[in-house]
Predict the structure.
Amino acid sequence: LLSQRVYAGLIEPKSFMIINFAPLREKIQNFITQNNLNVSVYVENFRDGAFMGINEKTGFFPTSLNKLPVAILTMKKIEQGELNFDTMIKLNEIDRVESSGELYKSKENELPLRVVLEKMLKESDNTALSMLLHQLDLNDLQFLLDYYDIDIKVRGREDLITPKAMSNLFRSLYFSTVLNPQDSEYLLSLLTSTTFDIKTIAKLPENVKVAQKFGINYYDNDQFFHNCGIMYIDESRIFYCIMTKNLNKEDATKTIGFTVNEIYNYVVDEKAKFEKMKK
């Protein structure tokens, strides 16, 4: 009658998994209130499903977070044999977008899919996104978004995404519910080396891995800065998603760094308390 994860050794008996996030929620909520911030936060322990949220169902313009479902569908096309990593992807003039990334400067007219995919995830390159969208059936992409319960249009600006909804995307990768395990692992590995250095910003130890996607939009009157990912803290797998609106880049970066740091320290401190009880 026990979980198979116990018998498989994936969960240690008497592991005292962290299930109470109320103190963490209170501390982050106080920080948001005291600084009058427009911020939403969602945290979930992927090992046992415990979670906490602050306005986690509030919708925000998705910025570059929409690149993650595009990457997942691209990998699905590879699994189905419709594409492969060596497929040459055309770089049309209309695809060259200067707003994010450096690929628009390329003198090449086509690039291998692997290069384009990696630039889209690691550098959040908008030119790479435009190139890959030509390879995808948008109906298939909408089906995938429906599966994840995410209501965004990849080419649109009017739709919103929530921190809670982003957990579905990362949970799917972590448990490999849509892709083959090696392909989910590949995408997560790309997300551990993005140009947004969350580990430095949040003052995390070197041994902590973070698979994360950032999204920034500072055009016209829009000011959005988001960061969502999984922190690998020893055996803990802690998902977080922080979305900000109407903060300048410096304040948004500080807010995200503070919040991720608080999440990390709460998990570490709680684990240390439980370890004493196990002795």
Remarks:
- The chain is about 40% helix and 15% strand.
- Residues 78 and 84 are 5 Å apart (CA to CA).
- The mean pLDDT is 90.
